[in-house]
From TrEMBL:
<feature type="active site" description="Tele-phosphohistidine intermediate">
    <location>
        <position position="76"/>
    </location>
</feature>
<dbReference type="InterPro" id="IPR003188">
    <property type="entry name" value="PTS_IIA_lac/cel"/>
</dbReference>
<dbReference type="GO" id="GO:0016740">
    <property type="term" value="F:transferase activity"/>
</dbReference>
<dbReference type="GO" id="GO:0046872">
    <property type="term" value="F:metal ion binding"/>
</dbReference>
<dbReference type="InterPro" id="IPR036542">
    <property type="entry name" value="PTS_IIA_lac/cel_sf"/>
</dbReference>
<keyword id="KW-0813">Transport</keyword>
<protein>
    <submittedName>
        <fullName>Phosphotransferase system enzyme II, ptcA</fullName>
        <ecNumber>2.7.1.-</ecNumber>
        <ecNumber>2.7.1.69</ecNumber>
    </submittedName>
</protein>
<feature type="binding site">
    <location>
        <position position="79"/>
    </location>
    <ligand>
        <name>Mg(2+)</name>
    </ligand>
</feature>
<keyword id="KW-0598">Phosphotransferase system</keyword>
<keyword id="KW-0808">Transferase</keyword>
<dbReference type="GO" id="GO:0009401">
    <property type="term" value="P:phosphoenolpyruvate-dependent sugar phosphotransferase system"/>
</dbReference>
<feature type="modified residue" description="Phosphohistidine; by HPr">
    <location>
        <position position="76"/>
    </location>
</feature>
<keyword id="KW-0460">Magnesium</keyword>
<dbReference type="Pfam" id="PF02255">
    <property type="entry name" value="PTS_IIA"/>
</dbReference>
<keyword id="KW-0762">Sugar transport</keyword>
<keyword id="KW-0479">Metal-binding</keyword>
Amino acid sequence: MNELELVAFEIISNVGMGKSLAMEAIREGRQGNYELAEQKLEEAKQFLLQGHHAHAGLIQKEAAGEKLEFSLIIMHAEDQLISAETIKDLAFEMIEMHKSLNRA
């Protein structure tokens, strides 16, 4: 496995954990467990940050002139990264919405 594939799998692994934690946060928020939901979201953010760091490393290499070959696995990793970020943002909003509804 080459370095590019290793980075892709690092991204996929980290953002996959982040996405799973964001989904767990939504479930906890729906059940009124807001503190646990917020903890899961914070943990999700840390995994997503690790994914972003790995991705940024690739961007820095290319910006420095290193030619990176097109790869479906990298494309998949980037797709997972953006999807997980979106899910995390929506999870935050959904938890806040559940809080508001339960206060009313």
